[in-house]
Amino acid sequence: MRRRESLCEVDLATSVASVALASPVMTASGTAGHGAELGAYIDLASIGAVVVKSLAAYAWAGNPSPRVCPVPGGMLNSVGLQGPGVEAWLSDELPALEAAGASVVASIWGRRVEDYEAAASLLARAPACVVAVEVNVSCPNLEDRSRMFAHSPSATGEVVAASTACSRPLWAKLSPNTSDLVSVAEAALGNGAEALTLTNTLLGLAIDTERRAPVLGAGGGGLSGDALHSVALRAVYECRSAFPDCAIVGVGGVSDGLGAVRMLLAGANAIEVGTASLADPRAVARVQAELVSWCQRHEVKAVSDLIGQANQNWKRGGLR
Hints:
Elements: E1 14-16, E2 19-21, E3 25-27, E4 50-51, E5 68-71, E6 74-77, H1 86-92, H2 94-99, E7 104-108, H3 113-123, E8 130-136, E9 140-141, E10 147-148, H4 153-163, E11 170-173, H5 181-190, E12 195-198, E13 202-204, E14 207-208, E15 213-214, E16 221-224, H6 229-242, E17 247-251, H7 257-266, E18 270-273, H8 275-279, H9 283-297, H10 309-316
Parallel strand pairs: 3-18, 4-7, 7-8, 8-11, 11-12, 12-17, 17-18
Antiparallel strand pairs: 1-2, 5-6, 6-16, 9-10, 13-16, 14-15
Helix pairs in contact: 3-4, 4-5, 6-7, 7-9
């Protein structure tokens, strides 16, 4: 009887521009809390990084309840970026992540360009475990009739430039709710972003037919989960085509190892697991294990070999 061959070792190491990661699998902002909450379920040091919920320079109460609603293919959320502010986070939440050995990506937001600069400046004194700052530009700009920063190349560029005050690598988290994604991405990269995080939620609405009114307290919300996956894949693929050498983090509807593989093939250097963690707090570790199993079955020895293959194979086939 033939002895079954042992499965190959898989090198999970990747890099997002200047940031080296032991694994491409991270949490997504807004779905893993501000601290080490998921440490009760997974080894936070074993994943690529913990991306914390977005923080402003000040404490913020968020939106009225209800804040979340399950919908076909995912969920709507309108939490409203509730948070303690950067200073409180540095003193009260970050130490537990540092003690757990986690690599941390802080996320910042604001309502004015100056808000981003203030939050970034506070993060300049963060310990070395904070390896990057993700700039959430999917926020209403109070100085432009509450139009999202992420819908304007110039506004996005201003926010990213202001955020360089953190003196850390910047990842610009962009919105899919624009027909001008490539131009917005170009503005982010041209003003100091080392990487693009693609993508944030889609705008959506749920209606309560008994009350005949919106379900969420703030009206509409952001759609995440499986329904977002194809949209996020398209965003990653388009930006990889437009910017062959830039770093990309793929996020949106990644709930299993195959979702992670698809993101890598579309051009992501790393991925984030979000909504799946709300249903299963072990989802990030499970996705990572399933990614390893897929690579072993397909004799892929390094996940970095997968990055952008779908794009390359499309061009090679003469279909583009």
